[in-house]
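#struct-pred
JK: can someone run the complex with protoporphyrin IX containing FE? inputs below
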Amino acid sequence: MPILQNLLLFLPPSLLTLFFYLYLFLWKKRSKPTLHLPPGRQGLPFLGETFSYLKPHPATTIGQFMQDHITRYGKIYRSNLFGDPTIVSADAGLNRFILQNEGRLFECSYPKSIGGILGKWSMLVLVGEMHQSMRMISLNFMSSARLRSILLPEIERQTLMAISSWKQDVAFSAQDEAKKFTFNLMAKNIMSMEPGEMETEKLRKEYITFMKGVVSAPLNLPGTPYSKALKSRSNILRVIEKKMEGRRHQRNEEKEEEDDLLGWALKQSSLSKEQILDLLLSLLFAGHETSSMALALTIFFLGSCPKAVQQLREEHLIIAGKKLEKGESVLNWEDYKQMEFSQCVINETLRLGNVVRFVHRKAIQDVHYGGYDIPCGWKVLPVFAAVHLDSELYNEPHQFNPWRWQQKSSSGMAVNNNFMPYGGGSRLCAGSELAKLELAVFLHHLVIKFRWELIQSDCAYAFPFVDFPKGLPIKVHAIT
Ligand code: HEM
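RT: done, structure tokens with the ligand placed:
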């Protein structure tokens, strides 16, 4: 030992520092058991594999990146995405486990740019108690009582307005029409804005610029989509703020208040002005982009499945016929409940089209799952699309087959806990029932009144947000 001490005394300081760090490294390695991370690779420094992961691909597929990684590493692999070490899961069990352990083992964790644009009080980025109270307001607003008595008649009114503007034999973008319809519906439910009015149209155009920023690279430089979107965000918030002031005047003058989300948020909560603004903006976003895409996808899939259109038409003609006999002119909840095949079509559209392909989470503790370690702080991406298109879980997963949802279990329900188009756990989509209602009511009038044809080959792409590059051009022909 004295020999070693003497040797150390005569070593140059730089070598001593090197020894010191080597010692620390070995000590740490020995004291901490080796992690058993899922297989995978890091990719490029900083960028990791983000660009390959985000490479656009047809929405009805999982894309080359996902395919290659699953083949090579299995359904759970590690990567480096969005600047963080990440576990990607195409495994139905792990996806469920992640969503069911929200707040305990995992937490919602969207990239910072999303918070920058949707706002720090947006439901998509909030966690904990604040998220819960915003969620309660949204759920109450879309309660089943309100769905029956207020939202259903409004959806039908707006569906009829939308489709009555369609001209026969003139091509138009089904995707744009779907977006206009769902935007107008949300603007009405959130702030009592009427479709077609100048103020609503101005807001809708502003919103299109805003959306381009949500899905673009977060570069806040003059002229970039992101910076334009930040400007649009301020303009949209100004409109909402003006509405808020109007409501306060209304209240002071003791006039009757509108029964919309803004009225609710002002009355029922102790939220600050900023919180209400972000809540309204994030609901406009969550409730508009997703259901419009689901509607466009339904029109797309049905366009190449005449057998399903025929069965849908029969279902809706029976409902319409019964109403005629009873002398009723508007749809009610009982009619909606009879739209069983329509629900199969909606499920199948969401399974195959995957409007929300994955969600962002991070581990807030060290987690052990299926023999793998997921270290605290790592990002976790449950990829629903990969489960929905998994041939081990769905027979011929790339086929549009709404009849697969008719096979019922012994409990009489088409149960399938691998199907998660609306997420799950304590962050399950707050508007899932509204979305189903919108789609079913729209389908009712669409199939009864029109036949339609897709007039150019177009295909839904995952960018990863889903979009039809050509806007899904269609022509309609009235059924006489
Ligand atoms: C087919 C249409 C829709 C699909 C596929 C869909 C999908 C989803 C998914 C996957 C999530 C979970 C996000 C996460 O866990 O990070 C979510 C959350 C949410 N969705 Fe939807 N959604 C749809 C329609 C709607 C509509 C019409 C509304 C109405 C405003 C809405 C409001 C919300 C809200 C407020 C949340 C956040 C819930 C929370 O964090 O507690 N969604 N949606």
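RT: quick notes.
The pocket of protoporphyrin IX containing FE is lined by residues 108, 123, 135, 138, 283, 286-287, 290-291, 294, 350, 355-356, 359, 421-423, 427, 429-431, 434-435 (CB under 6 Å).
The chain has one domain: 35-478.
JK: thanks, will look after standup
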